[in-house]
Amino acid sequence: MAHFTKATSVKDWLNQRLAVEKVEKVMASEYWIPKNINFLWAMGMVLAITFALLLVSGIFLLMYYQPDVKDAFYSVNYTIMRDVDFGWLWRHVHGVAASVVFLVIYIHMFTGIYYGSYKKGREMIWISGMLLFVTFSAEAFSGYMLPWGQMSYWAGMVITNIFSLGGLHMDGLVEWIRGDYVPAQAFLTRFFMLHVLLLPLAIMGLIGLHFAALRIPHVNNQDGEEIDFHAESKKYLAGDKAGSKVMRFANDFMSKDMMVVGIYLIFFFYLVFFQYGFALDPVNFDPADGLKTPAHIYPEWYFLWSYEILRPFSVNIGLIAFGFAQVIFMLLPWLDLSPNAVPASRRGAFNIWFWILLVDMIVLTAMGKLPPEGIFSTIGLVAALLFIILWVALPFITKNEKKA
Amino acid sequence: MKNKEPLILVVVVAFTLLTYWLVEPFAHSQMHKHVEGENFAYADLSPISKTGNAQNGKVLVTGAAGCTGCHSINKESMPAAMDAVTAAGSYGVNPPDLSNAGVVYDAKFLADLIKNPAHALKVEHKFDAAKGQMHPMVPFYGAGGDIDQEIADMVTYLQSIAVSKEELTPTMAYENACGRCHAVSYEKWTQIGTKPEFKFEKESLAFDIKVLEYQESLTKYMGKLPPDLSMYIRSRGEHFISTFVENPQNQLAGTAMPRVGVTADTAEKVIEYLADAGDTKRHERASVGKNVMIFAIIFAIFALLWKKQVWRELH
After folding, report:
1. Sign of the C-alpha dihedral computed for residues B82, B85, B86 and B88 taken in this order
2. Where in chain A are the domains?
3. Which chain A residues are Cβ-neighbours of B186 within 8 angstroms?
4. What's the Cα-to-Cα distance from B153 to each of B49, B58, B176, rounded to whole Å?
5. Alpha-carbon gap: A121 to the closest alpha carbon of chain B (Å)
6. CATH number for the A35-297 domain, one of 1.10.357.140, 1.20.810.10, 3.20.20.120, 3.20.20.70?
7. Average pLDDT of chain B, as a whole number
8. Structure ipTM
């Protein structure tokens, strides 16, 4: 057993038992961050704050929400929106944060792709990040079911139908997922469970993994520079703060994190109070009606690009393309064969690849929402094919990349 | 080293705004038909050319024209011949009380309605007299004099007994113009009136049964039960509701919903009523929103100053 002495202070008492000083050093004051990073590196903190907003607002909503097909719509739109003090605020915060969190995730992802932050020991950061993307997607989808409006019901119908896997006609699997032939009580209750328990647990575990994966390879930087963190941190601790290439996470980088968070919150609360329509779709303010299909069924904006990869093809090919789109990002560290972990701007063909991918995904997003008619369905088909071609081409264009 | 952050910010914001524009304003403009409002002018109806006389109008409304055979005028102590449920059984829908018809509805519309209900209501596709499909409201064929004068007199009479525009509340506007077909359960409104608080469940159930009986007749009359409008302000929005009320056929050709013929002022009040039902906390949202924005800006300023202080030593 370890030797304990009489504590001289509360801190000392805790230190002997929890090594708080050591923990503080590892997590904050001696967690070394390169100085040459820009505000895009603050997106992790922005995501953490948004997740906290989702968690807190979700807890308040959970106190009044009723996971019952007869009461769910009423509990959301009457009880929470009218009866509960500030219930409307929690709902708007929750709904807007659920949408904005994906905007920040996409910015975070494309930052990682642009600066090559998935290579040279950072593969686990990328993988855990993509797993977070998948669990966040499931969390968003399951949460979207809960108000039991028209779009909840019909999106639930369409998305669970995907599991019949087209020509394989696995209707039994779809019924098993739904717990019924159509979305009904069993469906709502299980998505409720997933949304408020299992998926948040998975997300929190994955966030832990994501942070842990970052600790050893360290944060990447905007110049693709290989930094000797050991030597640079010694320099910093010796007092040469300005000359060192690294800084403490706290308070040095955290002060910048909070500055970005501050600006982000202005944007976020503007959306919550004055521009929330994009996140709270009007169609979902009609109660679910299994006998009345809405004129246009579309997923939330952050799923549109992958929806549009499914849609322009015949059923079976569409499903294969869709499956491809779901897993391909995960494989990025192995499809990019270049050893260069530098910004895309210094990587020749990869730079072009990056910007085409970004624009293509925006085009897919737009076409995923528009009615699949005329020119829109042609553009959608071309964009979906381009998406697949881009990923198939990636190993070839990175293989012979010159050393940057 | 050159600071690239402003450029990066511009790129991020530009792509974000582009995506937003594509999936929201642009996509919705492609998905939904845009119907321009017509200011409730009812340009297809001819203006009333005669000056009406309220006294003569009263004689006609309560006598020769036979209005009070079906319509109550509670304000003038003329009760309805039947209760709402029985009336709906006979006519499909309970004929409205005329006490405030003169302020709720447009005068041109009322004149046309008296003369040719199916025309004014724009339901001639459903009620074609030539095919024997008579509108439950019988057209006024004249009481022997100049029919246009007689109609002008009746409209003037209805206007003379109605409350003033200022006295018309959003609730009155809704109940008169929409409430006999559309329930608003979040306001406890049913097609036969506001559901009272009952002491005994038996009484409450008896009331519900009456509502169901009324709805049964209404469903038969309209083809389907007109929807509960509790959340329509959020699901359809102000512009859709306003243009739909103005002329349902513009938004949904062939619909059984009649043109209601309300004035622009009444329509505004109906929308206010629906906003109170489905977007109850909008005023609170605006005021809390303002304060939160002020807080967020102050927070950002302090965060910026903190960052500057910490980073002074790092450069």
Report:
1. positive
2. 1-30, 35-297, 307-404
3. 77-78, 82
4. 11, 8, 22
5. 26
6. 1.20.810.10
7. 95
8. 0.94
